[in-house]
Amino acid sequence: MTWVENLILSVVEGLTEFLPVSSTGHLMITRELLGMSPSEHETYLIAIQFGAIASVLTLYWKRFFSKDALWVYPILIMGFIPAAILGFLFDDLLEMMLKAPWIPGLTLVIFGIVLLYIEKIFPPGDKKISDLRFIDAVKIGLFQCLAMIPGVSRSAATIAGGLRGRLTRAEATEFSFLLALPTLAAAGGYKLLKHWEDLKQGSELVDIGIGNVISFVTAYFAIKYFIGYIQRKGFAFFGYYRIVVGCLFLAYWLFLK
């Protein structure tokens, strides 16, 4: 991997991991545009997620480590359970979908249209994260499972679930960030174990270290400014963005590849 490829991939990971645009979809498209195979640098792409995860811990450390934070752990565990079960059961199918770059192109468009109307489908309520019950967290976790399809976006799916649970825009978005920690950490840890031989060979350790630093910095600022933006503007911009990017990539895939 060249330093330019490392920079591009880690910036894409950091910027898109917590925005409702699908980091997996963007990374699959980016690899395709860079001329990489669908399975190239797989361990690297899994490992640099931990830089993005660390940015959430940095920004929301009080949610996890203050004396009043214990209530959040059971809620996050309940929200994580659906993805843990379905991810384990359908791991092989999900791996196959990750090797088909046209899938995120299509789902970016479809769920971009959904995002345009998300607040009409699920009008924001007035609840806070602290108002969530276990059953509410499980329901949001079921929404999160939609993101197992490349291009759907884990953030978009969990935000939709939060809005359905009558959370405010900001609270639904923050819960999406918080739920990312157990979900991404477990998924990333599991996949790293599957690809442990790559790490033992040390072939990409330097790239992984640099990529984690870059993904941490870019994710930090993406999260910090996203909350303020959606409070003022809502989600429509990201819907239009998804539609444009998805259509452009599908045109490339069909006519220029």
Outline the structure in words.
The mean pLDDT is 91. This protein is mostly helical and 257 residues long. The protein has helices at residues 3-16, 23-33, 42-47, 49-59, 61-65, 72-89, 91-97, 102-116, 118-121, 134-144, 154-164, 169-194, 196-200, 205-233, 236-256. The protein has one domain.
Topology diagram in text:
Elements: H1 3-16, H2 23-33, H3 42-47, H4 49-59, H5 61-65, H6 72-89, H7 91-97, H8 102-116, H9 118-121, H10 134-144, H11 154-164, H12 169-194, H13 196-200, H14 205-233, H15 236-256
Helix pairs in contact: 1-2, 1-14, 2-8, 4-12, 4-14, 6-10, 6-12, 8-15, 10-11, 11-12, 12-14
Following the backbone from N to C, one meets helices and strands in this order, namely HHHHHHHHHHHHHHH
The total number of structural domains is 1
Tell how many strands the DSSP assignment holds.
0
**What is the SS-derived class?**
mainly alpha
Shape: globular
Q: How much beta, percentage-wise?
A: under 5%
Tell me, rounded to a whole number, the average pLDDT: 91
Which spans have pLDDT < 50 for at least 5 consecutive residues? none
Q: Count of helical segments?
A: 15
Please give the share of residues in helix: over 70%
Radius of gyration over C-alpha positions, nearest whole angstrom: 17 Å
Termini separation comes to: 22 Å
Major sheet size, sense and barrel closure:
none
